[in-house]
Amino acid sequence: MQSISQNKVQWATGIALLIHSVGLMGMLWSETNWFARMTSLNLLIMFSLVVWTQTEKKRNFYIFLVLSFFVGMISEIIGVQTGLLFGNYAYGAIMGFQIAEVPLIIGMNWFVVVYSAVATIFYFTRRIGPANNLIISNAECGPIGLNVMVGASLLATFFDWIMEPAAVSLGFWAWAGDGQIPVLNYLSWFFISIILMSIFRLLRIRPDNLFAVYLFLIQMMFFLILRAFL
To answer: pTM value?
Structure first.
């Protein structure tokens, strides 16, 4: 079973690296708009790979997946329709099928970002020091600790900060007025992430998915390079 899990991670990581490398080269040196339109397909593939590589596909994992999708979608719909959560912004048609002016893929992406962030914090925290009740409160099966909750929420918010300028340049969404990204956007990202992390903690899910860690790092590098050169 261990070798099967490792093979899944290796295959998924290779696919993620290939897709993001081709997409990066295409956006920087070829048909930017065409490759940008492939983003929804990319996000759908990454979502599928995270689920595929999850080691423990128990009921609570799928409950969190569904809740992440709906919390993300509802938050974005409120944001787009009212401007109260993130500020005044609108999604472009480039992101695919929309519900109430929010692309359906965005709900899936909320799950991917939040889950990858908590998996990354959990992974590195366990390697910084010995496992203790700040990391997981009940040995191998306990809920994530408060430090993991806050750290993952901060990391997810930082990811959004890295992603925003590139996403706007590619036409994924646009901010009203002078186009400046409001601080409210990042405050809401942290607040919603904390809500999702609280649900994650209550469900006592173990975020032990090495591919999710690799994916988070791949996507961070992807948007850092786009941010620098677009």
So the answer is: 0.91
The DSSP result for 24-70, as a single string, is HHHHHHS-HHHHHHTHHHHHHHHHHHHHHH-S---HHHHHHHHHHHH
pLDDT for the residue numbered 36: 92
Distance from C-alpha of 175 to C-alpha of 91, rounded to nearest angstrom: 9
Average pLDDT along the chain, 230 residues, taken 10 residues at a time: 77 97 93 91 97 91 98 97 95 93 97 97 80 43 83 97 94 92 96 97 92 97 93
Closest Cα partner for 106 from 82, 84, 120, 86? Answer: 86
The amino acid that residue 147 corresponds to is: N
Q: How far apart are CA 55 and CA 53, in angstroms?
A: 6
**H/E stretch holding 4:** helix 2-29
* Nearest by Cα to 24 from 13, 35, 38, 33: 35
- Alpha carbon 50 to chain centroid, angstroms: 11
Among residues 94, 85, 99, the alpha carbon closest in space to that of 160 is found at: 85
121: tokens are: 């914090």
Please provide the DSSP assignment of 23-34 as one string. Answer: HHHHHHHS-HHH
CA 21 to chain CA centroid, nearest Å:
18
Owner of token pair 């990204």: 181
> Which residues, in sequence order, are bridge partners of residue 90?
174
* Cα gap 205→133, rounded to integer Å: 16
